[in-house]
Structure formats: structure tokens, C-alpha cells
Amino acid sequence: MLREIRPAILVLVLLTAITGLAYPLAMTAIAGVIFPRQAQGSLIEKDGKVIGSALIGQEFKEDKYFHGRPSATVAPDPNDSTKTVPAPYNAANSGGSNLGPTSKALNDRVKEDVEKLKAENPTASVPVDLVTTSASGLDPDISPDAALFQVPRVAKARSMSEDAVRELVTQNTQGRFAGVIGEPRVNVLALNLALDAANAK
Amino acid sequence: MTVIGWIQILLFCAIVIALVKPVGWYMTRVFNGERTFLSPVLRPVERGIYWVGGVDEGREQHWLTYTVAMLLFHVGGFALIYGLMRLQAVLPFNPAGQTAVAEDLSFNTAISFITNTNWQNYGGESTLSYLVQMLGLTHQNFLSAATGIALAMALIRGFTRSSMRTVGNFWVDVTRCTLYVLLPICIVYTLFLVWQGMPQTLGAYVDATTLEGGKQTIALGPVASQVAIKMLGTNGGGFFNANAAHPFENPTALSNLVQMISIFALGAAMTNVFGRMVGNERQGWAIFAVMGILFVAGVAVTYWAEANGTSALQALGLSGGNMEGKEVRFGIVASSLFAVVTTAASCGAVNAMHDSFTALGGMIPLINMQLGEVIIGGVGAGLYGMLLFVVLAIFVAGLMVGRTPEYVGKKIEAREVKMAMLAILVLPLMYLGWTAVGVVLPSAVASMANAGPHGFTEVLYAYTSGTGNNGSAFAGLTGNTLFYNLTLAMAMFVGRFFMIVPAMAIAGSLVEKKSIPASAGTFPTTGGLFVGLVIGVILIIGGLTFFPALALGPIVEHLAMNANTLF
Q: Which contiguous run of DSSP H or E holds residue A53?
């Protein structure tokens, strides 16, 4: 059995060097050449400044922008490092609410959000994704229904016609992959950038 | 539930089934030491490793030596991860300036990765440097997966060899699995994932100024290279805290489908490897059928429960199912399917928060793990776990007809049955025992995020996942406390090695037996009767063990939910 000690050390060291250093570093080099944009995080720049990533949701509160889903991400409390404070769309600390199906806290939160949204658009039914937090807290997408629900508010805030805003939503709606895989969705940041661009014209 | 939802599920199943034979064929060649199309490149590397390591690839090992070699290998792996985590502040590749990880969290994470569990008490982007992610976690993702497959190969050799003493060479099995199976697939897979949008960079986190003028720090890193092996090796430890729900760790519906397929690919193919090695592929397909039936049943329940949503959401007039803790790009169906896949296999990656699933939707992942993760299972671990149940099923069948039971030419006798029972019983001892402690101790109760029966389920899920070496969580539970770090580490350790050692003892005992040809009295193990019998044994043993615990958790919660009770 003692003869197994040498391979236990040396085979481990060699396989670790291959899989833990050579492999990730080589992949970083190759990916950086073939897919430089994705490898760097699909960042979007405007006027030379990074304004976000195409894949990472960000917080929108103003009426003139489409809003993403509620986010349950947190950040360390600046006054007490053992506690956390809500910090929606914190892309340095992803996570969900982890509230269960019989949670009173969850029910209260959803109820409050539903009431707010109903006041904003009394005619349409509230889409479920607009009042539930995502798993990552960074969901970049909303459902097409959730985007259409917000059209009246956005159109009013921008003094645009609802049809023009609805047209932008349709243009920014992505279908299922190959018509089958996944769900139809609207990337909120892309839609809001398109809105700003339409206004600038 | 929708038609397009079921089409997605069936498409997934069809692709997995289509991969079983070709992957099984390739892996059989690798472990039989035959030439493959990669040999011209990899054979010199392989020989180099043996030369430096002092491994004589022609010399095989007794089951005890094989097991000791495996354990020694893990001692080294543990020391490496623990050391890297403690020292990360002074080591390179740390652009985010992460500080040293605490002793108990480092201990928990090191145990977690050597046991192929990858329980996340650490926060990924908020805790670990790039060096730890690569050299610590990525490397152990490879090696713990290769170990699982190597052990399954040793057990298979126990069935196929006649009157021998050795079950293979651990160093050769691990090296060949890493070089010929895992690494080549991961290289192609990584590039696919980056193409889909996954970052692969050593650059620092980026500060963005959002459209509304806020500041957003975006965590990056060498994500794709780690995610490839995390899925393929059924490890499941996330680069980011939110795991495969994070848009960088699972950018598109297509990346999600491929990730689910890669979780099952090797585990499913191991049934075919088994069939080929025992000389009858139908033996492998029979085992695959057992797994497949249990899997589809689980998917149906979870999908149904999640699509129905909760009564609290319905009362507010919200339709479209339970979207709390799910991502829009995956929706209800891909989130439900992923949850069942990741717990059927011993992966533990999540693309939705299981803690926010409905009571019944979240119960299926729990049951999958409590059945011993034999539905496809971890790479290698699923097969040897399933073979333990097969041994029991054959024993039960033998008792019924009064004949010495035999399986693929080997007599199943007292020693094998005892060892199989030991391996299977040690699991509930860990997850039920520690749950009992966890729900009584005030400091442990304080970690629960949800009140009522859901809080109990959080603790039960944690120990079940740890013992089963799964790694998924009802993540509301604050696991990063001294109590949970230490007790979960123990559950993971016992769940892994107290299953492996008896399985290896069975391999050692079987390999010495003579193979006997099938006769008219041999119970056929390729037909529907056998499949039904194994499913029955799995459900009865599993059901009797954990049904009372489930009744206190998800079942009570489901009834409470229907009565509109909130906690």
C-alpha cells in the first residue's frame, strides 16, 4: 500500500496542473480570440462607457423605461457587516428570495405589487413574472405579456403613441429557439435602449 | 402544462437516449485500454503521467489497494482545496481582492468538492478568487467525477471477471477517464458555452453605469471552463451564487438544454458500458429502463405542480404557474425539468430556486435524492448505487422462488447482500439523524428562512442533499454557520465513502467468484419483470425510510397551502 503514496501525490499534481491550470487558461486564451465579446461578458458600451451587460438585468424605476422583474439580491449592510440590505440587481451577489409557497412574507409582497400594477393598468390582468422575483435576481428578460402590460405607462411618460411603443416591444421579442426550446421573452435593457434611440430620432 | 412543454421534455429524453450507445461504446474502449481516435495526441501525455507518478499500468490492484489509492488521492485533493481557500488573499488571480475564507467554510467546501457534492455554503462571486475557482474547484470537478467512474468500472469488473483477485488499477482508470473522456468533451463544450454568452476571462469585475445612472458591479471570471465540467461531471458547484440560474452561467434556453443533456450523458452511457462489459447490452438497457421510468414519473409530478402554481398566487388572480425563483428564459417547463434532472443525477446545479417551488414540486427533487440518486445518478456513482439495489432485488427474487440468486453470471450471497444493505442504510442514518438534531438545536433552527413545515423541509433537504452528494439546496437556509458547515461536511463524507467502501467490497468479493453460465432456472434480468421488481424494491426501501419525514414536510405543507394557511 505504501507504493500508492507516490502516485497519490504526483498523479494528483500532474492532473491538477492539466485540469486546474492548463485547461482553464488555454480556454481563456482561445475563447478570447474566437468569441471576444461573449468572453468579456457581452458588455454594452455607450459613448465609451460601459452601461451594462446584454445578459444581466438592471434596475429600472422611472416611468419612461420598461421595468424588469422584482429582484431579491442583497448587499452587505454598510453599518453592520453581519447583516444584509436589499440591493436589487446586484450583479456581484446573485440570488433569489428563497421564499416558499406558504410564506406570508412572499404573499404580502406579491399582493402589494399586484395592487400597484393594477392601479397603473386596470384593464389588463397582471402577468405573474412581473410580481415574482427571479432565481438569480439578475433576470434580463420579462415575458412579452409583461412588456405589453407596461406599454400605456411608458407611452404616456414619453409622449409617444401606444402603437409605436407596442411596435418596439414586438421588434424586441425573441421567440423560442428553433420554435421549441425555452420561452418567448423580451430583453428589458435592449428594449429600453431601443426606446431611447427612437426618442433621439 | 402545455403541449410545447411536453415536446421540450420529450426532445430532451430523445437526445439522451440517442447518446447512450455511442458514448457507451467510446467509454468502453477507453476503459478496456483500446486505441481511440484521440490516442495519437493523448497517449504520450498519459504515459508521461504514469512515468512521473511511478505507475505501472500493467499492474492491477486488489480491491483494498484500489480503495486505499482512491482514499489517498482524496486526502491530497482535500489539502489542496483547503490550502488554496485559506491562502487565496496572497495568491495570484484575485482581481476582486477576496480575503481568506474562514476555517469552517474552507473545511466544508473542501469536503464538499472531494465528495462530488459541491454544496454551496460559499457565495462564488462574493467569496472566491479566480485561482480557487480554477485550481481548487475546477480540478476537483474533474477528479471527483473521474473517481466515480473509476469505481463503477471496478464494480463492473467484479461482475465480468471470473476467479480473479484484481479489479483494475485506480491510477490508470482515473487518468484515462480524465484525459480521454472528460477533458476532450469539456474543451468543445466550453467553446459552445462561450458562444452562447458565458464569460471566460481573467479580467476584473466591471463597473457599469446603468441607463438610470446607477452603479452596477458585474462579476466575471473564467466561468465557461468550470461550468463545462461542473455539468458533465455531475458536480454542480456554481461559479456564481445563483448557480445555473445566473444569466452568465446559463445564458440561453439552448445552453440550458445542452447543460441538462450533459448532466445525464455520461451517467446514462454507463448503463451501456455495463451492458457491453457483461456481454449483453440488454442488461444495460434494463437498468436504463428502471431509471427512465422513475425519471419521467418525477418530471410529470414536478411540471404539473409548478404549472398549477400556489393557491396564494391563484387567489391574487395570477395565472401562468409558480414563477417565484424562476427565470423567464427557462419558464416553468425547463425549470421543472432541470430540477428533476439535477437531483436524479447527483449534479445539484440549479436553474431555479428549489426553495420557492411548490410543496409537491419541491418534494420530487427531495425524493430523487433520498432514493440514493440512482435515477441516472452521479457519473459512475449512479451505476454503482443502482447495482446495489439490483443486488437487493435479485436477492428478494431469489427468496421468493427459493433459489440462490444470481446476476449476470455471479451468485449473489450473504456477503454481497450485507454490504449492499450497509451502503443503503447509512444514507438515511445521516439525513434523518442530522435533520432531527437540526430541528431541535436553537442555533440550527435560527438558520431557517421559512417558518412552518417549509423550514423543516429546508433542513431535511440540506442533509439529504449533502448525504446524497447532490449539492442542490433549499437555499434560504443559512448554511454558512459552524454547526451546518461541520455537520454537513460529515454527512457528505459519510454519504460518499460509506457507500463506496461497501460497493468496493462487493466488487472484491464478486471478482473472486466463478462465472456460471445461465440455465433454465436463471431469473432473466433483461425483461419487464426484472425492471418492475427493481423499481418496486427501490420504492419500498426508499418509501419506508423517508415517508414519515416527507409527511412532516412537503406533504403537510401541501395540505396547508390548499387550506390557505400561511406561515
A: strand A49-53
